[in-house]
Amino acid sequence: MKLREFAQQLGLSPTTVSRALSGYPEVSEKTRKRVAEEAARLGYRPNINAVRLVTGRAGAIGVVMGRSGEFHFSEFMGGLAERLGAEDIDILVSPMDDKNPTGEIQLYSRLAVSGRVDAVIVHSPEPNDERIALLHKLGMPFLVHGRSDIDVPHAWLDIDNEGAIRRATSHLIDLGHRRIAMINGRQGRTFSLHRDKGYRDALEARGIPFDPRLVAHGNFTDELGFRFARSFLEQTPRPTAFVAGSMMTALGIYRAARSMGLEIGREVSVIAHDDVFPYLTAENMVPSLSATRSSMRAAGARSADLVLQLLSGRPTEEVHELWPVELILRESTAPPPQNG
Amino acid sequence: MKLREFAQQLGLSPTTVSRALSGYPEVSEKTRKRVAEEAARLGYRPNINAVRLVTGRAGAIGVVMGRSGEFHFSEFMGGLAERLGAEDIDILVSPMDDKNPTGEIQLYSRLAVSGRVDAVIVHSPEPNDERIALLHKLGMPFLVHGRSDIDVPHAWLDIDNEGAIRRATSHLIDLGHRRIAMINGRQGRTFSLHRDKGYRDALEARGIPFDPRLVAHGNFTDELGFRFARSFLEQTPRPTAFVAGSMMTALGIYRAARSMGLEIGREVSVIAHDDVFPYLTAENMVPSLSATRSSMRAAGARSADLVLQLLSGRPTEEVHELWPVELILRESTAPPPQNG
DNA sequence: TCAAAAATTTAAAACGGTTTGGGACATTTG
DNA sequence: CAAATGTCCCAAACCGTTTTAAATTTTTGA
Question: B93: which DSSP letter?
Fold first, then answer.
């Protein structure tokens, strides 16, 4: 049903009906109520594409999905969707070809120019992130999930990676560990750098020399966790503790330790960062996994809020949110063995 | 830049330009080429919302995302996106509140009526799936990922769950196992039923009585894998083998076996279904995990193809695809212990 | 009571494209 | 060489809303 017909049935003009439905003040309360009721009864809904054309708004926000196994992606999306479902705003997912970095910038460019989205969410930024510069230049509103050092104003939501890893590392030092390995995220991402810094600062604060042979970078996969852990554990003296970038990494570390006959929580301590997944929980691992913890789903939900605020005019400079991270100690951390 | 201005710069009428860009035959090859080149050079792109309004097409397909930990969701999406990125079609994600089943049907209804999408993909259907009936009634094209017994024509893409589990179970029987436990997916989903059937048929074919105390249903989480496996292993006699619905379930089973001092691959065999994740691979587990295997990402990509075919008029009845499933044997399966 | 002000409602002009129905020109046919 | 056939191109109508500017009705104030 079109607005025209609907209005006719009500004996009103299209204008009045449109205004009544959009909550303009120029329409009397009585009329508004009648229109709302009849719309519900007759099932009238404005044609979304006509609305989009005339308002110039897309009614959607864009998210670019990396190809390489991002298992936290669906949690973030879940949070986003949860919050955006209430508004009448869609989530538009674009795929990215990780293998072709030039493609990425084109992708963002297309997304921004195409008019399909009103805003974009940028993930896993780098300190000098081209995408941020591009979106700023194009005037497309965007929220960065993470942070960047780039000299371009950008709204962001991030967790305190540096503080989290500093605390985790400090805790391991407090327990008596001196050789602490770290398996971090992909080289070059801001969050990896922040975690590196937290780790180094914690060591430095206690006068423990930084050993580059104890730090590795890579995707958050079980396999890399295993391979790095394995190669670290083969060093002599071997590390007595690990700081892991993700739950999957931790799985790999557990596996590596076991494969070498080492008992987690006694001979090797592990703290991982946990994004909180319904299907894999740190508490249930054996031994239960000590973790720095921050809900990815909550971040998604909050990101939706912030994007909506940006769109309704809140200035970019105001939208910066840094979330603290919990440190939850469980069985996987303990003092190092005496003859470590 | 608008069509008007762009056409003017070319010294052509908007009509001709529009036709040239849309590949109509009434335009000479020479003109078409010139228009295409200039469009690229000047960066002209038709306003997507105007196109949508006038053509009545949404240029997007919808996917409903369940709330409960669906870690395979992002793999499916990845495949979908990969294929749809080439076309000019968006993916629209809607969230679903799992706790409110009435909400689900409303959600699909809204999605269908809203005109935001040209087609919908339905996940994890049930034998008598209300959503399928609804979409059919509303005349919204849709593809079911999975199958349903409902008496409504529907296009679907599914893997041979029944055959996969039948083979997996048969293999365990061949190895000598007699008490085989199965930890399946959520009760009521068609794929769970198919797997149940495959399991029972395999037992029956070898004259092994079906014991309901060896079968459990639930979400694919590490935790449920652990809890069910644990309770099964506490039975006497205990099962000597497990068929697991997912990688996460398998993780839980490994954990349960270990927690009871049982060695996987010697005292307990495990076969799981593997949707193929970049971050957690069956091959890397210790011991490496035997698995029925089918790429979720490939299913997503193919689903995109099939939806496009539906939209371009291929009849629903023709679009049925059943994929065979590989069975890959690794270290987690072996004959049962002699005194089992 | 009546003009002015305020509150409602409406007609018409966008929004930026696609597509229908011709018209102009070039090419073939009888 | 006129008529018939193709090939390109164009003007105008239309998609279904929102919004501006104007018209109408109601309320207010002297």
Answer: E
Q: What is the DSSP letter of A283?
A: G
Tens of pLDDT, residues A78-104: 899 888 877 778 899 887 766 666 678
Q: Does B278 touch chain A (CB under 8 A)?
A: yes
Q: Which residue is nearest to nucleotide C20 (CA to C1')?
A: B15
Each residue's pLDDT tens digit, B187-239: 999 999 999 999 999 999 999 999 999 999 999 999 999 999 999 999 999 99
> Which tokens sit at A81?
């969707």
- The candidate with the shortest Cα–Cα distance to A290, out of A302, A281, A299, A298, is A281
Nucleotide nearest to B15 (CA to C1'): D10
- Give the C-alpha separation, A113 to B45, whole Å: 8
Q: Is A189 helix (H, G, I), strand (E, B) or coil?
A: coil
Token digits for B236?
């006497």
Report how far residue A271's alpha carbon sits from residue A290's, in angstroms, rounded to the nearest whole number. 5
| Cβ of residue A68 lies below 7 Å from strand D | no
List the structure tokens of A270.
Answer: 């592990």
Across the A/B interface, how many CB contacts are shorter than 8 Å?
A: 155
> How much is the pTM?
0.90
Give yes or no for residue A340 having a pLDDT over 50: no
Cα gap B42→B48, rounded to integer Å:
17
* Nearby residues of A232 by Cβ (< 8 Å), 6 or more positions away: A181, A214, A216, A238, A239, A242
Alpha-carbon distance of A129 to A65, in angstroms, equals: 16
> Is the CB of A35 within 7 Å of strand D?
no
Share above pLDDT 90 across residues of chain A, in percent, rounded to a whole number: 70
What is the pLDDT of chain B when averaged over all its residues? 91
**C1’ C7 / CA A26, Å:** 8
- What phi and psi, each to the nearest 5 degrees, are found at residue A95? -85, 155
- Chain centroid to Cα B198, Å, comes to 19
Measure in Å the smallest separation between the Cα of A197 and chain B Cα atoms: 25
Q: What's at B307, amino acid-wise?
A: V
On chain A, the residues whose CB falls within 8 A of the CB of B255 are 284-286
Burial class (CB in 10 A: 0-12, 13-18, 19+), B212: exposed
For A58, nearest residue in chain B (alpha carbons): B49
A44 touches chain B (CB under 8 A): no
End-to-end CA distance of chain A: 76
CB A221 within 8 A of CB A227: no
Nearest CA to A154 out of A186, A193, A190, A114 is that of A190
Q: Which of residues 112-131 of B touch A (CB under 8 A)?
A: 113-116
For position A67, what pLDDT does the model report?
A: 61
**For strand D, which nucleotides have at least one atom less than 7 Å from a protein CB?**
7-12, 14-21
Beta strand A90-95 pairing with A60-65:
parallel
Please, are residues B161 and B264 in contact by the beta-carbon 8 Å criterion?
no
List CB contacts (< 8 A) between A49 and chain B: 49, 52-53, 56, 58, 115
